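Backbone-to-sequence.
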C-alpha cells in the first residue's frame, strides 16, 4: 500500500508543542504500547528538538516521530553532524503504507546539517526488528560477535549522553533504563535467535534499550581499528 496523498505532515519544535499536539502524541504512544510510560515520552520530548506529526484530512492523528539533526563534538570528530532518531508510532489504520519512514525522514531533516564527508545516524531500540535496517550497514556498531573498539565505545558513550542516558554499558551498547518499562509493543514481530543475540543484555522490564550507530556513506578512517585512541 502507498501513503495517502491527503495526509498532512507537520514538523514542530518539541518546545513549541501545544496541548492538542501533545495529547495526540500521547494517544498514539498508548495506542502502540501496552503500559506506555508517559514519563519516558515526556523525557524524549525534552531531549529531542523536533516532532513530526501526521494527520488525515479530518485532523485525526495518524502517526508521529521524534528526532533531531544535531552537530556534536565526538571523540576525534569535532563538529560531527549526527541524526538522532527517537520514538515513532503509527496508528494501526495507517501502517504498512510507508508512513513510518516518511515521518522519520521529515523529523531528521527538520534542521539543515552542514556539509560533511560523512554523517552518523543513531537510534535506540528494544527489539531486533527495529535494528534490522541499521544492522545491514557495514559500519554499524554494535555487531554480533565483535566487541566495540575503544574509539567506538567512546563515540557510543557520547551519543548515549546526547540522548540523556545516565548509565551506558560501552561494551554491550545497552542504555540502562530508569527501572520502569518503556512499554510493551502491542504488535510483536518475530525475530531469529541470531537477531536476539545483541539484545540479550537488554532488560526491557527496567526500560533498557540498545544504542545503534552507523555511518553514511562510509566510516571515518580507523573506525574498526582496536588500536585507535578513544579520546
Amino acid at each position: 500500500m502507498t501513503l495517502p496523498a491527503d495526509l498532512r505532515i507537520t514538523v514542530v519544535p518539541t518546545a513549541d508543542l501545544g496541548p492538542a499536539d501533545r495529547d495526540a502524541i500521547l494517544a498514539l504512544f498508548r495506542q502502540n504500547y501496552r503500559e506506555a510510560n508517559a514519563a519516558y515520552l515526556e523525557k524524549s520530548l525534552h531531549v529531542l528538538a523536533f516532532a513530526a506529526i501526521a494527520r488525515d484530512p479530518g485532523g485525526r492523528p495518524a502517526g508521529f516521530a521524534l528526532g533531531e539533526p544535531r552537530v556534536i563534538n565526538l571523540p576525534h570528530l569535532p563538529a560531527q553532524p549526527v541524526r538522532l532518531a527517537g520514538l515513532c508510532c503509527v496508528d494501526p489504520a495507517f501502517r504498512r503504507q510507508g508512513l513510518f519512514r516518511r515521518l522519520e525522514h521529515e523529523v531528521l531533516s527538520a534542521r539543515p546539517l552542514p556539509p560533511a564527508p560523512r554523517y552518523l545516524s543513531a537510534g535506540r531500540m528494544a527489539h531486533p526488528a527495529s535494528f534490522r535496517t541499521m544492522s545491514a550497514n557495514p559500519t554499524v556498531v554494535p555487531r554480533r560477535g565483535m566487541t566495540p573498539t575503544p574509539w567506538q565505545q567512546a563515540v557510543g558513550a557520547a551519543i548515549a549522553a546526547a540522548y540523556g542516558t545516565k548509565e551506558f554499558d560501552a561494551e554491550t551498547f545497552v542504555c540502562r533504563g530508569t527501572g520502569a518499562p518503556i512499554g510493551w509493543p502491542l504488535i510483536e514481530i518475530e525475530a531469529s535467535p541470531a537477531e536476539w543475540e545483541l539484545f540479550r543484555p537488554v532488560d526491557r522490564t527496567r526500560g533498557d534499550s540498545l544504542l545503534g550507530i552507523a555511518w553514511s556513506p562510509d566510516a571515518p578512517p580507523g573506525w574498526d581499528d582496536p588500536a585507535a585512541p578513544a579520546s
